[in-house]
Amino acid sequence: MSQARFLIRRSLQGLLVVWGVITLVFLLRFITPGSPVDFVAPLDASPELRAQIAINLGLHQPIYVQYFDYLFGLVRGDMGFSYIRGRPASGIILSRLPATIELAVAATIVAIIFSIPLGVLSATRRHEPTDYAATTFSLVGISTPNFWLGIMLILIVSVGLGILPTSRRPIGLIPALEMLIFQLQISGIRTWIAHMILPAVTLGTYFTAMIVRLTRSGMLDELGQPYVKAARAKGLPETLVTYKHALRNTMIPIITVLGLQLGSLIGGAVITEFVFNWPGLGTLVIDAIVVRDWPIIQGALIVIGIGFVVINIAVDALYTKLNPRVSYE
Q: Which SUPFAM superfamilies does the UniProt record give (predicted)?
């Protein structure tokens, strides 16, 4: 099977998954106690006013009519209207999405920079102090809750030492890059980096610890394979054997976990965003749940689901690039 046919097939499968996510998210509103009318109508609203609000929200129609109207609206890019905020839900969600993507990608970069070298060193220096230090770090990193780590970093680094800011980014990455490119000012990118470090480290610590363990176990398995012994017998440098051959064959499970965890970071950065008052999807969903702003809740969950599907398709496409023995079948 060619790569194009594979991507088309996986895209069709992804569309089915997205459709399932949309259906579940839509039904979630009907199985959750309470009504959106309760949060839109005044406390002293009359039954007539409540009925009119229900009509404006489309809640008076049968559930199947609401479902197909919602599907057709999504096809047009319409996620509904947030009566709580007085704005279309799609605009609100898309305005918050870049902050979450920036945080998730930054946390992933932090994890890759530290985890893979630590995992390789731990495997090549087995039962040495480096190995013990790496495995101890991975154990501590996996066991440490994100919210506690974030609070400790704020107290020590920001409040105690006064090195980095505590919360909320005043500028996004794109505006900072525009200032750098068009105005030759580094203040924007410097501010963005300063506000990004603590949240990225907080969110990426668990991720880093997990990849360290995965890299170490994969490298130990690959370093014992016959092709590694043959490469060493040919006199190839140990660095070439370790990084070009053994690490390359270890990367497939690592890439899989990286893709899955990147999707998880996009959807699961709620606690970290809350601790650092980060203006992303996580804090938006929390605020929307408190006031039962269903268009925002549904739209954000659908965007997160689409992100998972796209990332998984990209990961599958990378497999054959890393290891030609992997077939598209």
A: MetI-like
Q: Which of left, alpha, beta for 44 (phi over 0: left; psi -120 to 50: alpha)?
A: alpha
Q: What is the CATH number of the domain that holds 286?
A: 1.10.3720.10
Task: Locate 217 and state its tokens.
Answer: 């176990």
Kindly report, residue by residue over 235-266, the tens digit of the pLDDT: 878 788 887 778 888 887 888 778 777 777 77
Q: How many domains does the chain have?
A: 1
Domain around 291:
97-322
Domain assignment of residue 56, yes or no: no
Burial 117-142 (b: 16+ CB within 10 A, else e): ebbbbbbbeeeeeebeebbebbeebe
Among 26-30, 170-174, 206-210, the range of highest mean pLDDT: 206-210
Q: Which residues contact 165 (CB under 8 A, 6 or more apart)?
A: 158, 194, 195, 198
